Amino acid sequence: MMTIEEYAQRTEKSKKMLLWFGMVSMFMMFAGLTSAYVVSTSRPDWLNDFVLPNAFMISTAVIIASSVTFHLAKMSIKKGDRSATSFWLLLTLALGLGFVAAQFYGFDQVIKSGYFFTGPESTVTTSFLYIVITVHLAHLFAGLIVLLVVIYNHFKQKYNKSQTLGLELGAMFWHFLDILWVYLFLFFYFY
Fold first, then answer.
1. Per the database record, which ranges form the Heme-copper oxidase subunit III family profile domain (predicted)?
2. Which of 102, 162, 173, 174 could form a disulfide with 59 if both were Cys (CB 3.0 to 4.6 A apart)?
């Protein structure tokens, strides 16, 4: 017969494993998109002189900072410091929103440089950039929703030193999104 503790541990492991499966699936989708990008570079209409705007570098720094603040929130709740946890979670949310703003500013810089994502003036290069970043933003919006749920649950006092599962799952997903963006940024920057 299984004890309540054993059942809770199995449930926790199951939830983490499901999240891992989801994250690996998402990564495979982006691997496919970046592979298609690599194959498309041999097209005659490919832009070889396209340079990523600085806003994407800024957004990369912001998203990395948000990963650090989410980690600090997780460490704070494990120490039982609820006010520090609140501060770090709200700062993570602000940085997440700052990332989204920087992404849209980057899109604006691309358009002002004369590159369009759709329509007759678009190119395959900018269309790929648009698709990959838009899909990542859709995942980030999911991450923001997860973060809002974590913040809500934190303020409802569902997390404490011994119960951090929801916050840990949220942090895992957030860190995954950050790593994914760094991969995409480095890919587009160096390729």
1. 1-191
2. 102
